[in-house]
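Retro notes (design track)

What went well: tokenization of the new backbones is finally stable.
What didn't: we kept losing track of which sequence belonged to which structure.
Fix going forward: every design gets posted as structure first, then sequence, in one message. First example under the new rule, 199 residues:
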């Protein structure tokens, strides 16, 4: 295989999952509308995940808190992945599976939005975070890959249709940028924000 073929194949493997996102336009629009309703009601976006999704959580938060597009309103958002002291203290006494759930119990409010990110692997701490968020009344959104099982029970599940964790990660970046864009579209048309969109 030549290097050129390898590069082509690498991009071909990414084309279909990327295209498949558009097929989920309705699910993405419903999630965006529900998020915009929560922001409009004073809710904040709380994001979490592991490994690369840990940094993605911070990427998502900065997109909302400090929009790169001039003129767009800053919206309250924070990641639960940046404070190593809190993460390690919780992991030491309550176990790694509790590192997001424990923070949500203390920091979250019922009108907030919880966004859990995973490439599709076994991530008990993200599942626990979403489960506790749901118990507290938060809107729950799961951005996942693989079989999408991680998001089971969440209000909105957005799945990258690929078992390849690298490709899932790339699709996620596109999806959360679209989430940001569309939340602002709804925000700029408050008439659309009267009621939360059903799943
Ligand atoms: O960035 C990547 C893959 O693109 C990896 O670091 C990946 O995030 C880590 O292996 C994570 O621990 C995977 O966890 P998950 O997203 O499958 O829950």
């Amino acid at each position: 295989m030549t290097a050129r073929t390898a590069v082509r194949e690498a991009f071909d493997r990414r084309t279909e999952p990327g295209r498949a996102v558009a097929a989920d336009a309705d699910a993405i629009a419903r999630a965006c509308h529900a998020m915009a309703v929560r922001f409009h009601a004073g809710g904040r976006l709380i994001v979490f995940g592991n490994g690369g999704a840990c940094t993605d959580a911070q990427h998502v938060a900065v997109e909302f808190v400090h929009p790169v597009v001039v003129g767009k309103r800053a919206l309250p958002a924070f990641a639960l992945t940046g404070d190593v002291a809190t993460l390690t203290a919780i992991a030491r006494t309550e176990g790694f599976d509790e590192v997001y759930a424990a923070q949500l119990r203390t920091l979250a409010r019922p009108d907030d939005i919880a966004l859990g990110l995973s490439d599709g692997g076994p991530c008990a701490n993200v599942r626990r975070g979403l489960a506790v968020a749901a118990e507290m009344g938060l809107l729950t959104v799961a951005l996942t890959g693989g079989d999408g099982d991680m998001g089971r029970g969440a209000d909105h599940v957005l799945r990258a249709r690929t078992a390849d964790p690298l490709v899932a990660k790339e699709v996620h970046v596109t999806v959360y940028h679209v989430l940001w864009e569309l939340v602002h579209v709804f925000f700029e048309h408050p008439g659309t924000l009267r009621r939360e969109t059903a799943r």
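Added context from the reviewer: Residues 3-197 form a domain with the Rossmann fold fold (CATH 3.40.50.10490).
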